[in-house]
Every structure is written in C-alpha cells, then in structure tokens.
Amino acid sequence: MNLIVESVERIAVLRATALGDLLLILPAVEALRRAYPAARITLLGKEWQVPFLRGRPGPVDDVVPVPPMEESLDPPPELVGRFDLALQMNGDGHHANAFVNGLGARVTAGLRGDDAQPLDRWVPYVPYQHETLRFLEVAGLVGASSDDVEPRMRVTRDDYAELRSVLGQLPRGLIAVHPGGRDARRRWPAACFAEAAARLGRPVAVTGGDHERDLVEKVAALIPRSIPVVGALSAGGLAALYTACDVVIANDSGPRRLAAATGTPTVGVYWCGDLINAGPLTRSHHRPLISWTTQCPTCGGAGLREPGGCDHPVSWLTDVGADAVAAQADELLNA
C-alpha cells in the first residue's frame, strides 16, 4: 500500500519537549525527509529549540515555538492552513491531537491515546513501547521508513568554538559523568558515579544544569582530577564536550542521549521500565545497566509508572553496582 501523500510542500511535526525527548524523534524525521525530499519540515516546539537547531545540518528546516497546549488547544492563527501534512509526535494526544487537528492540514497523522481526538491516520499510544520505534510507526503512516533506529546529530563549528571559549584545552583521555536527571527516583547515587569514574583512572568532566549545581559539586568533590561543568554550555556546546570524551556515564537523561547522538560511547543506568521506552537500541557503543527494583525502597509502593505509585525522592537504582558500570565503560574504552 502506498501511503505517501501527494503534492506535499510543507510538513509540521509537533514535539514541544525537552532535549532528550527531541532527540528520540530524529530517526522518524530523517525518514520523513527521505520520503518527502522537496518538502519543508517545520518543528512545532519550544523556544530553546530555535537556537539549538538553527543552522544545524539535519532534517528540520525551521522551528516555530508554540504555546503550552495545557493552556490552549488552539494553534496560533498564523499556523492555521500553513501545512499540507501535520504529524503529532508529542505524546498520547490528550491535548496535542486537538492542536494538530486545528492546524487545518490536508492530512494529519500521529499517536492516539484512549481519550484523544482521532487524526486522519493514527497508531495507538501504549505505555510500554520504545519512543523511537513509536515515532517511526507514525512516520510510516505517511509512507516514510528507515532502518536507522539510533538518533544522530551533527556537531557544528559554532558548538566547538563555544566549547573552546568556555573550557579551553581539554585533557587527553577525558570521560564524562552526568549524575543528574529530572526525577530523583531515576538517579543513580552520587557516590556510585564517583566510584565508577575513579576506577577508570581518567580525567573526568562532571556535567549538569544550573539546577543540578549541588549534585555536580558533590560528585566532583569525590573524583580527583575532575572538571565540574555546570550550566556553562548550551546544548550544542555540551554536545561538543561529549565528542571530546571517550565515554559518557549517565542516568537515563537528555545528556546521555545527546552524547550517543554525537557518536560518543555511553554507559547508562536505567530503571527497567524506562529502558523499554528510551534505552539505546544498539549495544556496540552503548551499554545499559538495569535496575530491577519494582517497589519503592522507602514504602514498598507500586512501580514508577503504575497508578498509585509513590513520590518518595529516593533512588530506585541502587541495585546497580559501580563495578558493573566501570566494567562496561572499560570495555568500551578498550574496544
């Protein structure tokens, strides 16, 4: 069956999310680019994505920031009727499908949860499915396909220039650890990061955002020869830093996905359910270590994604040992 939409000049892709979530759609958007080589692809996203993607080689031609859909389901008037094809890659569609339908595109396609509006073409949103494969299914609804499942992102001269201006000359043999993450339950303990890094005997960059300053400084204080890098680099500059590293050790986070997208080997520490949805899909350069903890270590409550799960801010990843992480990193370093 030929699912290609004829005479498409402009495509909208809705993905108004954080860094790591954006990276997960790249294989699907690359597939759209190959299927519709003459079309202009616009990412409907967030303000931070504008400077990050401006001038960066890749499948996205431009970024238009959109307001939070929780505040308004109506797209800005200047976007209505602008696109031939609109794809919803923003989640289960509870808010997003109404927004995409409001764009007035000739054909809409995307994900649909139980309480979401239907689109012209849709696949069901189910909780446990890898996000990249989910979005490739969406691309498939309009005739796009790809054998590439790992996101790829080009690092630019401007990214490298930013890195040099902020950090100067970096030591040879550098590795990075990123101990942060949005959810304390999904963060490996700081002492474990320090122990794993110390076993490798390399100079270490400890990365994090401004909101993670205390955590970065805690980890850096435990690692000799460490370089704390806190909120000093843009996403592009951080990508350049990771290309200068021989391996990156991180939680399931945007920075781990960013490092992987630049081609740097990674070791990630995952809660088992999160590995299903967002872990690396290949193993030659990326090694996940998995926590099989299924109940809150504090109260014994339900799993992280289950109804009625608790919010105790304790790590669910403590059953992953520093020796196992260091062993996987050492194997990648010596591959």
Automatic annotation (TrEMBL):
CDD domains: GT9_LPS_heptosyltransferase. InterPro entries: Glyco_trans_9, LPS_LOS_Heptosyltrfase. GO terms for biological process: lipopolysaccharide core region biosynthetic process. GO terms for molecular function: ADP-heptose-lipopolysaccharide heptosyltransferase activity. It holds the Pfam family Glyco_transf_9. The keyword Transferase applies. This is Glycosyltransferase family 9 protein. It comes from Herbidospora solisilvae. The lineage of its organism: Bacteria, Bacillati, Actinomycetota, Actinomycetes, Streptosporangiales.
